[in-house]
Design brief:
338 residues; mainly alpha; Serine Threonine Protein Phosphatase 5, Tetratricopeptide repeat; globular; ribosome binding; 7S RNA binding; Signal recognition particle subunit SRP72; TPR repeat; endoplasmic reticulum
Length: 338
C-alpha cells in the first residue's frame, strides 16, 4: 500500500511537471521512479522524453544506448529525432527506417531531413502526401513547411503552382517567399503586408506587448525590405533596414540579414550573395533561437517546425504517466473499474 502510494505520488509529480512544462522536475520525478521502482518500465521512456525536451540530446542518446530495449520500449522515432538534433543525418535516416511507415511524425522528420540535405523534391512529395492524407492541429505549420519547400524548388527553376489559400501569417510569409523566387514581387509584397497584419493580430491575441510584437515582426519586415529593394524602391528598403538596426532585434539572424542587405542596398550590390550568406548564417544560429523565433523564421532556409515534433514527443509523457497513474490508483483501491 505504501509502495503503491509512493509510486502514485511520483507519477503525480511527473504529470504535473509535464503539464507545467517544467521538464527538469519531470526528469527528477522519472529518476525517482527508476531508482525506487525499477520494474516500472515506462519511466525510462519518460526520462528519455524529458532529456529531449531539455535539449540534452547527448544524454538522451547515452540513455538509449545503455538501456535494454525491453526496458526502454519502442522509441524508433525518438532515436531518429535525437540523431536529427545532433546533426547526425545518416544515422537519423537509418533510424527512420525502423519507424512505422504510416507514422506521420516519422514522415515529417524525414521531410525535414530531406530539406536539410537539399533533397527538396523528396521533401515536397512527403509534405504533399501528409497534407492530403493526414490532418491534426499542426496543419498550419505543415502547410507552411510545404510552401517553404515549394519556394526552394521555385528557386531551382522547378515551376510551382501558385497557392491562393494562405491563411496564417506563416503561410502568407512562405507564399511570399515562393512568389519572390518566381519573380512576382508585387504579389509577394501584398502577401508580406497581409502576413505582417496577421502576425500582429495573432501575437496580440497571445498577449504579447508592443515591443515583443515588433521583435517578432522583424524578420517579416526584413523580407519586405528585400522585396522593395528588388522592385527598385531602394530608399524605402534602406529606411526599414535603418529602423531595424535602431530597434536592435533580439534575433541574431535578423541582424545578419539587415547588415548584409543594407550593404547591398547602399552599394547597389547583388542581393543574391546576401541571401546565400543569410542561409549560412541561419544554419549556424538555429540552436541559439527561441522557439518563437524559430516559428517566425520560415524564410526558405528553415522549413522546420520542431515544436510539433516536440509536442508529439511530449504527448508520450502524458500518455505513459496518466495511464499508469490510473493503474496505480486502481491497485490501491478495492474497486476495479474504469
Amino acid at each position: 500500500m505504501t509502495t503503491e502510494g509512493g509510486l502514485r505520488q511520483c507519477l503525480t509529480d511527473l504529470t504535473r511537471a509535464d503539464t507545467s512544462g517544467d521538464y527538469q522536475k519531470a526528469l527528477q520525478a522519472a529518476n525517482r521512479i527508476i531508482r525506487r521502482y525499477p520494474k516500472e518500465q515506462y519511466a525510462f521512456k519518460c526520462k528519455l522524453v524529458c532529456l529531449i525536451q531539455l535539449g540534452m540530446y547527448d544524454d538522451a542518446l547515452t540513455l538509449l544506448k545503455k538501456t535494454p530495449p525491453n526496458q526502454m520500449g519502442e522509441c524508433a522515432f525518438e532515436r531518429a529525432y535525437i540523431f536529427y538534433r545532433l546533426e547526425k543525418n545518416d544515422e537519423a535516416l537509418e533510424a527512420l527506417e525502423a519507424c512505422d511507415p504510416k507514422d506521420h511524425r516519422a514522415l515529417e522528420l524525414k521531410a525535414q531531413l530531406c530539406y536539410r540535405l537539399d533533397r527538396f523534391q523528396e521533401a515536397y512529395e512527403i509534405f504533399r502526401d501528409l497534407l492530403r492524407n493526414h490532418s491534426d492541429s499542426y496543419d498550419d505549420e505543415r502547410k507552411a513547411n510545404y510552401l517553404a519547400v515549394q519556394a526552394q524548388l521555385e528557386a531551382m527553376g522547378v515551376k510551382q503552382q501558385k497557392n491562393d489559400d494562405s491563411e496564417t501569417f506563416e503561410q502568407l510569409y512562405n507564399t511570399a517567399c515562393q512568389l519572390i523566387e518566381a519573380g512576382n514581387f508585387d504579389a509577394a509584397l501584398t502577401n508580406l503586408d497581409k502576413a505582417i497584419a496577421s502576425c500582429r493580430e495573432t501575437l496580440s491575441e497571445e498577449g504579447l506587448d508592443e515591443d515583443e510584437i515588433e521583435d517578432e515582426l522583424a524578420m517579416l519586415r526584413v523580407q519586405r525590405a528585400f522585396v522593395l529593394h528588388k522592385m527598385g524602391r531602394k530608399k524605402e528598403a534602406i529606411e526599414i533596414y535603418k529602423a531595424l538596426q535602431a530597434a536592435g532585434p533580439s534575433d541574431v539572424s535578423v541582424m545578419v540579414t539587415v547588415s548584409n542587405n543594407m550593404a547591398s542596398a547602399l552599394k547597389d550590390q547583388s542581393l543574391t550573395d546576401s541571401r546565400k550568406k543569410l542561409k549560412a548564417a541561419l544554419q549556424l544560429d538555429q540552436k541559439k533561437l527561441s522557439t518563437r523565433q524559430r516559428r517566425t523564421l520560415m524564410l526558405n532556409n528553415v522549413g522546420l517546425y520542431r515544436e510539433s515534433l516536440i509536442s508529439a514527443i511530449r504527448n508520450d509523457v502524458a500518455y505513459y504517466a496518466v495511464g499508469d497513474l490510473e493503474a496505480a490508483t486502481l491497485r490501491c483501491t478495492p474497486r476495479h473499474h474504469h
